[in-house]
Amino acid sequence: MLTINKSSENNKAVLSLAGRLDTVTAPDFDKTVREVIPGITELELDLKKLEYISSAGLRVLLTAQKIMNTQGTMSVCNVNETVMEIFDVTGFSDILTIKN
Amino acid sequence: MSDKNISPITIALSGRIDSGNAAETEKEINKQLSSSVNAPVILDASNLLYISSAGLRVILRIKKAHSDLTITDVSSEVYEILEMTGFTEIIKVEKAYRTVSVEGCEVIGEGFNGKVYRIDKDNVVKTYKNADALSEIQHERKVAKLALILGVPTAISYDVVRVGESYGSVFELLNSRSFSKILAGEPEKFDWCVSEYVKMLKKIHSIVVPKGELPSIKEKTLRSVMRMKDSLPDGLGDKLVKMIEDIPESDHMVHGDFHTKNIVLAGDEVLVIDMDTISVGHPIFDFIHMYDAYVGFSEYDPGIVLDFQGYSSEISRKFWHSTLMSYLGTEDEKRFEDVDKKVRCLAYAGLIDWGIRHPDPDPQKARATIDLWKTRLIEILGEINTLNFDLPAADGANELQIDAITENLEKVIDFVNKRLEAVDCSPKNIMQLDIAVEEIFVNIANYAYSPEIGTATVKVEVSDAPVTVTVTFTDNGVPYDPLKKADPDVSLSAEKREIGGLGIFLTKKVIDDISYEYKNGSNILTIKKTV
Q1: What mean pLDDT do residues B297-315 have?
Q2: With an 8 Å Cβ cutoff, are A51 and B410 in contact?
Q3: N or C: which end of chain B has fewer CB within 10 A?
Q4: Residues A10, A28: contact at Cβ < 8 Å?
Q5: Mean pLDDT in chain B?
Q6: What's the rounded Cα separation, in Å, for the pair B159 and B86?
Q7: Which domains does chain B show, CATH number per domain?
Q8: pLDDT band at B232, cuts 50/70/90?
Q9: Half-sphere exposure of B467 toward its Cβ, with a 13 Å CA cutoff?
Q10: Is residue B495 less than 8 Å (CB to CB) from chain A?
C-alpha cells in the first residue's frame, strides 16, 4: 500500500509518500509524477512516512530526477535510516539531492 | 550360505522346549540337517507350546550354522517370548493367524474392496474380497504405521486373522462413528464436520514424507489417464496429459480416498482410517477423490450417493462445496468455481477409466454414465489450459507454491514476513529481506515463463547460531542465471545511469549470500541473511 499526497504552489510541487514503494505501487507513483511534472521548476519528495523501497521505486525516482534536471531542481527530504541505506548502496545518495 | 535353488527343510517343533529337553531337541534337529548344509531351514512351530532360554539358545546355534532360518506358524504366546528376547529382530518369525468368524456380525462399513464387521464392542475386522489379501493387508499396516509415526491420527490394525478363505485385519475402535453416519443422523453437526474434516485434511497435507516411502499419486493418475486418453477427440487427451505433467511435484502426504466414511469419531478423537491409498503429491489429487465420492460417482444417478454414504446428494454436494471453500480459505464463489473445474477435469478422466473397467451391470446405464462424464470433461478441456491454482499456505508450512505473476507479490511478501515473525528480526532486516524476495520473485514473474504463467516455489528456512534466514526460489521456466549479469556502475550521474538493471544488484547488497543452480529442469536461487 502506498498513499501519495500532492500539494503545489506556483512552480513547486510537493509529493509526500507513505507506505511501500514496490513493484505493485511504483506504477501509481510514476503516473502521479508524470501528472505534476509538466511546467514546474521545483519538485520536492517528502519520504517521512515511506517505509520501504525496492528497485521499482528507485527507477521512478531516477526517471523523475532525469526530467527535473532538464527543467529545474528536485529534492528528497526526511529520508529514514533504512531507506537511506538503500540510497547509499545503489549510488542514489549521489544522484539525488537529499535534505534531511 | 543358503542356496535359493535348494528346497527348504522343514522341521516340526512340538510341546515344550526347556532345559529338560533342549539338548536332546538340538541333537535331533542337527541330525535332520546334517545332510544338507546349504538348504533354507523352516521350523514349524504350529505345535510349539512353550520355549525357555535353553531352547532359544538351541535356535541361536542353528541360526549360526544355517543363516536362512524361518520360524513359522508361531502362536501368540511363543511369539511374545520371541519378541521380548529380541529374536524377532534377528530371525524371520511368522505368526500363526487366529481364525475369526464374522457370521452374524454387524456390518459397519462396506467399501469397494471388502467389508468391515464389528466383532465385539471395541473391535472391528476389515475383510478383503481379494483372495490374495495378505499382501494388501501388509501394505496397509506398513503405510498406516508410517502415517502414525509422521503424525496422522489413525487406527493401526493390531492383528491379522484368517476369515474364511481370506484374511482380515483387526482394529480397536472404541465407540466409533463415521462422519457419514454423523452427517446422515445429526444434520445440525454439519458445520462441525466440515471444520474437523478440513483440519484433518490440512494436517495430512502438511506432512513431508521421507523420500521413497510412499508412491507418487501423480504417477498413478497419469497411468489411469493414459488408459483412457485415446477415447477423447482432437488431441484433448494429450492436452490433459500435459496439464497433469505440469502439476508441481510434492513430497507432502495425500490420503487418496478422503471421504466421510473414512473419517471417524472414536470417543472424542477424530481418526482417519483406510490408509492403503496414502501417497505423496499435490492436494488436488485428494480433491479429485473427494469430488468422486460426493458428486462424481453419482453424477448420472444421484441415488448412488445415498446408497454409498447414507446421506442425500444435496448434503453431499453441499459438503463438497463447503469443505473446498474452507480448505481454500475463501468465500469467493469464483475462486471455488475455478478450482472445482480443475478438480472435475481430473475427476472425470479418472471416473471414465474406472467406469470402463468396472461397468454398471445395466449396459444402457453404464454407457449413459460414461457419456455424461465424457461430455463434461470435453467441455472443461476446451475451457482451461492449466490445472494449477494457488494454495493457501498451511499453518506452519515453510513452503509456498504460487503462480509467478506480479499480482501475487503481496501474498509472497506476507508469507515470508509471517515466517519472520517467529524470528527476532529487526524492521531493517525484514525490509532488506523483503526487498530481496521482491526483486527475485518479480524477476521470475517477468521472465521465467513469459508469456505463459507458471509456478514459483518460495521456501523459508531459519537456522540458529547465528540466526540465519535462507529463502529458496524454484521455478521451472527458461534457464536463467541472474548472477551472470554485470553490476551497474553506481558512480555515474543521473543522466548516464540506466533506468533498469538495479534489482539483482540491490538484492546482492542487502543480503549476505546468493547462489544459483540449474538442476533437473529447475532454476534454484538461494539467498541467505544473518539477522
Answers
A1: 93
A2: no
A3: N
A4: no
A5: 90
A6: 19
A7: 9-96 (3.30.750.24), 106-172 (3.30.200.20), 178-383 (3.90.1200), 399-530 (3.30.565.10)
A8: very high
A9: 8
A10: yes
Interface of B with A in 419-458 (CB under 8 A): 427-428, 431-432, 434-435, 438-439, 442
- The model's pLDDT over B99-153, given as tens digits with 9 standing for 90+, comes to 888 888 888 877 767 888 988 888 889 888 776 788 888 888 899 999 999 999 9
Rg of chain A in Å (alpha carbons): 12
Q: What φ, ψ does residue B126 adopt, rounded to 5°?
A: -100, 120
Domains of chain A as residue ranges with CATH: 2-99 (3.30.750.24)
Which phi and psi angles does B178 have, rounded to 5°? -75, 160
ipTM above 0.90, yes or no: yes
d(CA A8, nearest CA chain B) in Å: 25
Q: Which chain A residue lies closest to B435 (C-alpha atoms)?
A: A54
Mutation site for B-interface testing, chosen from A59, A82, A87 by largest number of B Cβ within 10 Å: A82
Q: Please answer yes or no on whether A91 and B491 come within 8 Å at the CB atom.
A: yes
Q: Residue B107: which H helix or E strand, with range? A: strand B106-110
Tell the residue number behind the cell numbers 475402535, with chain if given: B173
Q: Considering only alpha carbons, which residue of chain A is nearest residue B504?
A: A55
Q: What is the pLDDT of residues B20-68, one digit of tens each?
A: 999 999 999 999 888 777 789 999 998 999 999 999 999 999 999 888 9
Contacts of A59 in chain B (CB under 8 A): 499-500, 502
Most B CBs within 10 Å, among A20, A24, A55, to test the B interface = A55
Given a contact cutoff of 8 angstroms between Cβ atoms, the answer to whether B264 and B215 are in contact is no
Answer yes or no: do A86 and B435 touch at CB < 8 A: yes
CB count in 10 Å sphere of residue B80: 12
β-strand pairing of B9-17 with A98-99: unpaired
Distance CA B413, CA B15 (A): 72
The verdict on pTM exceeding 0.90 is no
3-state secondary structure of B473: strand
For residues B442-466, average pLDDT: 89
- Quote the minimal CA–CA distance from A31 to chain B in Å: 16
List, edge to edge, every strand of the sheet that includes B166-172: B98-99, B159-163, B166-172, B123-127, B115-118, B106-110
A11 interfacial to chain B (CB closer than 8 Å): no
